[in-house]
Write a structure and sequence with these properties.
Blueprint (H helix, E strand, L loop, with lengths): L1 E2 L8 E4 L3 E11 L7 E8 L5 E7 L3 E4 L3 E11 L2 E6 L5 E4 L1 H4 L11 E7 L2 E6 L3 E9 L12 E6 L4 E5 L7 E5 L5 E4 L3
Antiparallel strand pairs: 1-6, 2-3, 2-6, 3-4, 4-5, 7-8, 7-10, 8-9, 10-11, 12-13, 12-15, 13-14, 15-16
Length: about 190
């Protein structure tokens, strides 16, 4: 148990009958009239839904101890993704629903963070950007380099994103894992 005065960004709270909510941001407010309160923005750990919630200052809230472990993606076993704990070398199979959109950017040997609560994986967190090779994209036409257009490109993971017209098959690019946007070429 903690009070609303102890809140920090990234802290996980257990609210509404055991649901896990992560604190995205919080603000202590002391109006001139009335009692102080804490305005928060909370993100549901499993669904990703974001809500605003206000607590009276000093209110007790239940915190959840979520273990964030450094892991490495090893291989895909049927539908499950198998991750290896980099400190203990234990293997942990995780279902595709828990992996979510991170599956679009996962390559064997990819380092990531897996959040675990009561021995159950909650979500997989990738670095903000990853480097991937373009498996296939239509060739660019001479003169297309000046326009700001994009074309579809299939990454080595099988996921498709939009890239600038001058990108060719076999190039290594940097991709934002949160939005799926092209960030730039990687000089090898």
């Amino acid at each position: 148990m903690a009070t609303t005065n102890d809140l920090k960004n990234g802290m996980v709270l257990k609210l509404d009958g055991g649901q896990l909510w992560s604190v995205v941001e919080f603000q202590h407010v002391k109006p001139g009239k009335g009692g102080a309160f804490v305005r928060t923005k909370l993100k549901h750990v499993l669904t990703g839904k974001v809500v605003d919630k206000t607590f009276n200052a000093g209110t007790k809230v239940e915190t959840a101890t979520v273990d964030r472990r450094a892991m490495q993606f090893s291989y895909k076993d049927g539908a499950d993704f198998v991750f290896m704990d980099t400190s203990t070398y234990d293997q942990l199979p995780i279902n595709p629903e828990t992996v979510g959109d991170a599956a679009n950017y996962l390559l064997e040997g990819q380092d990531c963070t897996v959040a675990i609560y009561e021995e159950a994986p909650l979500f997989v967190e990738l670095p903000a950007a990853v480097e991937l090779v373009i498996e296939y994209t239509e060739p660019g036409v001479q003169g297309d380099r000046s326009t700001g257009g994009t074309k579809p490109a299939k990454l080595e993971t099988g996921y498709e994103i939009g890239v600038p017209l001058f990108i060719t098959t076999g190039e290594k690019i940097k991709v934002d894992t949160r939005s799926g946007e092209y960030l730039g070429r990687v000089n090898s």
